[in-house]
């Protein structure tokens, strides 16, 4: 099975953990000709299975499930305790206790693998690392297509050696968590832009590429396809769809002129993630330790309380760099619009190339 066999259009809906990309959104995108994805991150194994059943009840087309790789729990407890003390004022303000930053970081990984092997889905993708060959070979034997998120050519080489069918190349422009294999506190949030990364990965491995990072319209999809990608993955573009499970406050903030830029921050989860710059990020981002998922667990109640209070200044407003281009359209309609824009961009490129050839011939 080829990547292009999975959907009519080269449009993949990003798996956005935390409730944004559930069954309704994934099914709507797949039904419209894209490739919808469920985000299994932060869910129980049974919770993931129930959502899979919901998608199957809504569409017969291919869809995917994304898993978080288990994380190394080795973190300085003292650094977490210092951050807990810094957040005490937030707990008082939102009248909610801080969460318990336990060391569990496997996200029910093995239980989810067992379900997906026993009752296969068309596609499984992985973030925050690469499974070993035994895992990917097991999926290959049951006909499940596997995609591994990468942020460098080196990570792409690891995925290739492990037997991945494709790589999701994530540029630094992407909203939400960066899918780096190793969270290096010394990196300073540095990362490669998507077009450069596509070229480097294309040169490093012979795998199909799904391009992700700040993509919001059909012309951008055409650009990454021209750069060597086989499909484009969009997350923020689908956040404002009615099928999205993102909170109304989050959806409104994406196009609110109050939020003019995005940054990478550890403030909410302890891992670099791109979101709209708000008060919480400015006040706590510089001091947040590299401690995922402990910081995520610590701030979970605060973020929920802020959302319930309708306060965007205390929420994790994950968003890619192109967030101001978000359109409030039903998911199926957005896929149709993106596909039409892609066709227009391709036609324009063909006309431009024809004109260039004519100019050369005339000279």
TrEMBL record:
Q: Does the keyword Transferase apply?
A: no
- An example Pfam family from this entry, by short name, is NMO
Q: What is this protein called?
A: Probable nitronate monooxygenase
Family named by the database record: Belongs to the nitronate monooxygenase family. NMO class I subfamily.
Q: Which GO terms describe its molecular function?
A: nitronate monooxygenase activity; nucleotide binding
Keywords (alphabetical) are: Detoxification, Flavoprotein, FMN, Monooxygenase, Nucleotide-binding, Oxidoreductase
Write out the catalysed reaction.
3 propionate 3-nitronate + 3 O2 + H2O = 3 3-oxopropanoate + 2 nitrate + nitrite + H2O2 + 3 H(+)
GO annotation (BP), single:
response to toxic substance
Required cofactor names: FMN
Q: Spell out the SUPFAM superfamilies in the cross-references.
A: Inosine monophosphate dehydrogenase (IMPDH)
Described by its record, this protein's role is as follows: Nitronate monooxygenase that uses molecular oxygen to catalyze the oxidative denitrification of alkyl nitronates. Acts on propionate 3-nitronate (P3N), the presumed physiological substrate. Probably functions in the detoxification of P3N, a metabolic poison produced by plants and fungi as a defense mechanism.
Q: Which residues form the signal peptide?
A: none
């Amino acid at each position: 099975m080829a990547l292009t066999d999975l959907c009519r259009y080269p449009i993949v809906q990003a798996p956005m953990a935390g409730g944004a990309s559930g069954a309704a959104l994934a099914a709507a995108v797949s039904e419209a000709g894209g490739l919808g994805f469920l985000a299994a991150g932060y869910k129980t194994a049974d919770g993931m299975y129930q959502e899979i059943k919901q998608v199957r009840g809504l569409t017969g087309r291919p869809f995917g499930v994304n898993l978080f790789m288990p994380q190394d729990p080795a973190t300085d407890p003292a650094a977490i305790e210092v951050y807990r003390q810094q957040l005490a004022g937030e707990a008082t303000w939102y009248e909610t206790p801080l969460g318990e930053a336990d060391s569990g970081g496997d996200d029910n990984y093995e239980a989810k693998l067992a379900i997906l092997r026993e009752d296969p889905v068309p596609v499984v993708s992985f973030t925050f690392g690469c499974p070993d060959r035994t895992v990917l070979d097991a999926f290959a034997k049951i006909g499940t297509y596997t995609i591994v998120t990468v942020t460098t050519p080196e990570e792409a080489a690891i995925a290739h050696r492990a037997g991945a069918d494709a790589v999701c190349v994530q540029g630094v422009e992407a909203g939400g968590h960066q899918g780096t294999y190793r969270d290096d506190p010394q990196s300073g949030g540095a990362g490669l832009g998507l077009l450069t990364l596509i070229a480097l990965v294309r040169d490093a491995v012979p795998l199909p590429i799904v391009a992700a990072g700040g993509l919001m319209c059909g012309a951008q999809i055409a650009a990454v396809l021209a750069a060597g990608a086989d499909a484009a993955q969009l997350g923020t573009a689908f956040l404002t769809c009615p099928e999205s499970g993102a909170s109304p406050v989050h959806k409104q903030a994406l196009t609110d002129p109050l939020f003019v830029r995005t940054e990478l921050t550890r403030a909410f989860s302890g891992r670099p993630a791109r979101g709209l710059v708000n008060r919480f990020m400015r006040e706590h981002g510089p001091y947040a330790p590299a401690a995922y998922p402990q910081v995520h667990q610590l701030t979970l109640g605060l973020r929920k309380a802020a959302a319930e209070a309708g306060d965007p200044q205390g929420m994790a407003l994950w968003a890619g760099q192109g967030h101001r281009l978000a359109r409030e359209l039903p998911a199926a309609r957005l896929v149709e619009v993106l596909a039409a824009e892609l066709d227009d961009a391709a036609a324009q490129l063909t006309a431009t190339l024809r004109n260039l050839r004519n100019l050369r011939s005339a000279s």
